[in-house]
Amino acid sequence: MNLDFNEVIRLASSKWNFLKFKPGLVGGHCLPVDPYYLSYIASKNKFEMKVALAGRSVNNNMKNFVLKKFYQNIKKNKIKRNSNILVVGLSYKYGVADLRNSLNLEIFNEIKEKYKKTRYFDPFVNNKYGLKDPKNYKNYKTVIFLSYGKIFLNLFKKLKGKKINILDPFKYYN
Length: 174
Prior knowledge:
Blueprint: H1 5-12, H2 34-44, H3 50-60, H4 62-76, E1 85-88, H5 103-114, E2 118-121, E3 130-131, E4 142-145, H6 150-159, E5 165-167
Parallel strand pairs: 1-2, 1-4, 2-3, 4-5
Helix pairs in contact: 4-5
Protein backbone atom coordinates (compact mmCIF):
# COMPACT_ATOMS: atom_id res chain seq x y z
CA MET A 1 0.00 0.00 0.00
CA ASN A 2 3.11 2.22 0.09
CA LEU A 3 2.21 3.70 3.46
CA ASP A 4 4.90 5.56 5.36
CA PHE A 5 5.22 3.52 8.56
CA ASN A 6 6.66 6.44 10.52
CA GLU A 7 3.72 8.62 9.52
CA VAL A 8 1.25 5.91 10.55
CA ILE A 9 2.99 5.63 13.93
CA ARG A 10 2.99 9.43 14.34
CA LEU A 11 -0.73 9.58 13.67
CA ALA A 12 -1.52 6.58 15.86
CA SER A 13 0.47 8.10 18.74
CA SER A 14 -2.17 10.80 19.10
CA LYS A 15 -4.31 8.17 20.85
CA TRP A 16 -4.00 8.41 24.65
CA ASN A 17 -3.13 4.74 25.24
CA PHE A 18 -0.87 4.21 22.25
CA LEU A 19 2.27 2.03 22.65
CA LYS A 20 5.08 2.84 20.22
CA PHE A 21 6.60 -0.18 18.52
CA LYS A 22 9.10 -0.21 15.68
CA PRO A 23 9.10 -2.74 12.85
CA GLY A 24 11.98 -5.12 12.60
CA LEU A 25 13.15 -8.68 12.69
CA VAL A 26 12.04 -11.01 15.50
CA GLY A 27 14.42 -13.62 16.83
CA GLY A 28 15.85 -15.04 19.99
CA HIS A 29 14.76 -18.00 22.01
CA CYS A 30 11.20 -16.92 22.96
CA LEU A 31 9.22 -14.95 20.39
CA PRO A 32 9.79 -17.19 17.37
CA VAL A 33 8.63 -20.35 19.16
CA ASP A 34 6.35 -19.45 22.08
CA PRO A 35 3.27 -18.69 19.91
CA TYR A 36 3.44 -22.26 18.58
CA TYR A 37 3.51 -23.68 22.11
CA LEU A 38 0.59 -21.48 23.08
CA SER A 39 -1.33 -22.41 19.94
CA TYR A 40 -0.75 -26.11 20.54
CA ILE A 41 -2.07 -26.08 24.09
CA ALA A 42 -4.95 -23.80 23.07
CA SER A 43 -6.01 -26.21 20.30
CA LYS A 44 -5.96 -29.07 22.81
CA ASN A 45 -8.48 -27.01 24.79
CA LYS A 46 -10.55 -26.17 21.69
CA PHE A 47 -9.36 -22.54 21.33
CA GLU A 48 -8.06 -21.07 18.07
CA MET A 49 -4.98 -18.85 18.07
CA LYS A 50 -5.31 -17.33 14.59
CA VAL A 51 -3.92 -13.91 15.53
CA ALA A 52 -0.77 -15.23 17.23
CA LEU A 53 -0.04 -17.55 14.32
CA ALA A 54 -0.77 -14.79 11.80
CA GLY A 55 1.86 -12.68 13.58
CA ARG A 56 4.35 -15.53 13.28
CA SER A 57 3.54 -15.86 9.59
CA VAL A 58 4.33 -12.17 9.03
CA ASN A 59 7.56 -12.41 11.04
CA ASN A 60 8.62 -15.59 9.24
CA ASN A 61 8.40 -13.71 5.93
CA MET A 62 10.41 -10.68 7.08
CA LYS A 63 13.68 -12.26 5.96
CA ASN A 64 12.31 -12.53 2.41
CA PHE A 65 10.99 -8.95 2.63
CA VAL A 66 14.44 -7.60 3.59
CA LEU A 67 16.30 -9.68 1.02
CA LYS A 68 13.92 -8.56 -1.72
CA LYS A 69 14.53 -4.91 -0.75
CA PHE A 70 18.28 -5.58 -0.68
CA TYR A 71 18.40 -7.19 -4.14
CA GLN A 72 16.17 -4.48 -5.64
CA ASN A 73 18.48 -1.84 -4.16
CA ILE A 74 21.62 -3.63 -5.41
CA LYS A 75 20.18 -3.87 -8.92
CA LYS A 76 18.98 -0.26 -8.95
CA ASN A 77 22.38 1.02 -7.81
CA LYS A 78 24.35 -1.35 -10.07
CA ILE A 79 26.39 -2.83 -7.23
CA LYS A 80 28.78 -5.52 -8.49
CA ARG A 81 29.27 -8.95 -6.90
CA ASN A 82 32.85 -8.16 -5.91
CA SER A 83 31.77 -5.05 -3.97
CA ASN A 84 32.22 -4.63 -0.24
CA ILE A 85 28.89 -4.94 1.61
CA LEU A 86 28.39 -4.11 5.30
CA VAL A 87 25.49 -5.56 7.31
CA VAL A 88 24.79 -3.58 10.49
CA GLY A 89 23.25 -5.60 13.32
CA LEU A 90 23.74 -9.36 13.39
CA SER A 91 22.12 -10.58 16.60
CA TYR A 92 18.36 -10.90 16.90
CA LYS A 93 18.21 -7.76 19.07
CA TYR A 94 20.37 -4.70 19.57
CA GLY A 95 22.71 -4.91 22.53
CA VAL A 96 22.90 -8.69 22.86
CA ALA A 97 25.34 -11.30 21.56
CA ASP A 98 22.65 -13.98 21.21
CA LEU A 99 22.37 -15.29 17.64
CA ARG A 100 19.66 -17.90 18.32
CA ASN A 101 16.93 -17.69 15.68
CA SER A 102 18.45 -14.45 14.37
CA LEU A 103 16.92 -13.47 11.04
CA ASN A 104 19.66 -10.85 10.82
CA LEU A 105 22.24 -13.67 10.82
CA GLU A 106 20.28 -15.59 8.16
CA ILE A 107 20.13 -12.46 5.99
CA PHE A 108 23.86 -11.86 6.47
CA ASN A 109 24.67 -15.46 5.51
CA GLU A 110 22.57 -15.29 2.36
CA ILE A 111 24.12 -12.00 1.27
CA LYS A 112 27.62 -13.31 2.09
CA GLU A 113 27.00 -16.34 -0.11
CA LYS A 114 26.54 -14.10 -3.17
CA TYR A 115 28.73 -11.16 -2.17
CA LYS A 116 31.92 -12.71 -0.76
CA LYS A 117 33.27 -9.39 0.53
CA THR A 118 30.35 -8.98 2.94
CA ARG A 119 31.18 -8.15 6.55
CA TYR A 120 29.05 -7.14 9.50
CA PHE A 121 29.25 -4.57 12.24
CA ASP A 122 27.72 -5.55 15.55
CA PRO A 123 29.98 -4.74 18.51
CA PHE A 124 28.05 -7.19 20.69
CA VAL A 125 28.85 -10.24 18.51
CA ASN A 126 32.23 -11.78 17.68
CA ASN A 127 33.16 -14.01 14.78
CA LYS A 128 35.53 -14.00 11.83
CA TYR A 129 33.42 -11.75 9.57
CA GLY A 130 32.81 -9.02 12.13
CA LEU A 131 34.33 -5.59 12.46
CA LYS A 132 35.00 -4.03 15.85
CA ASP A 133 34.70 -0.55 14.37
CA PRO A 134 33.94 0.13 10.70
CA LYS A 135 36.49 2.96 10.45
CA ASN A 136 37.03 2.20 6.78
CA TYR A 137 33.34 2.49 5.99
CA LYS A 138 34.25 4.43 2.84
CA ASN A 139 35.37 1.08 1.37
CA TYR A 140 31.80 -0.22 1.41
CA LYS A 141 29.56 0.17 -1.61
CA THR A 142 26.43 -0.77 0.33
CA VAL A 143 25.55 -0.67 4.01
CA ILE A 144 22.32 -2.33 5.18
CA PHE A 145 20.91 -1.60 8.65
CA LEU A 146 19.04 -4.51 10.25
CA SER A 147 18.88 -3.30 13.85
CA TYR A 148 18.10 -0.10 15.68
CA GLY A 149 20.25 1.28 18.49
CA LYS A 150 22.48 4.16 19.59
CA ILE A 151 25.77 2.82 18.19
CA PHE A 152 24.14 2.03 14.85
CA LEU A 153 22.45 5.43 14.75
CA ASN A 154 25.87 7.07 15.19
CA LEU A 155 27.21 5.05 12.25
CA PHE A 156 24.19 6.00 10.15
CA LYS A 157 24.85 9.69 10.87
CA LYS A 158 28.50 9.26 9.79
CA LEU A 159 27.44 7.59 6.52
CA LYS A 160 24.55 9.90 5.63
CA GLY A 161 25.59 12.22 2.83
CA LYS A 162 28.63 10.14 1.86
CA LYS A 163 28.86 8.37 -1.49
CA ILE A 164 27.69 5.10 0.03
CA ASN A 165 24.56 3.17 -0.86
CA ILE A 166 22.61 2.96 2.44
CA LEU A 167 19.70 0.57 2.81
CA ASP A 168 17.43 1.00 5.81
CA PRO A 169 14.57 -1.44 5.05
CA PHE A 170 12.55 -0.57 8.16
CA LYS A 171 13.24 3.15 7.92
CA TYR A 172 14.75 3.15 11.40
CA TYR A 173 16.85 6.22 10.67
CA ASN A 174 15.37 7.75 7.50
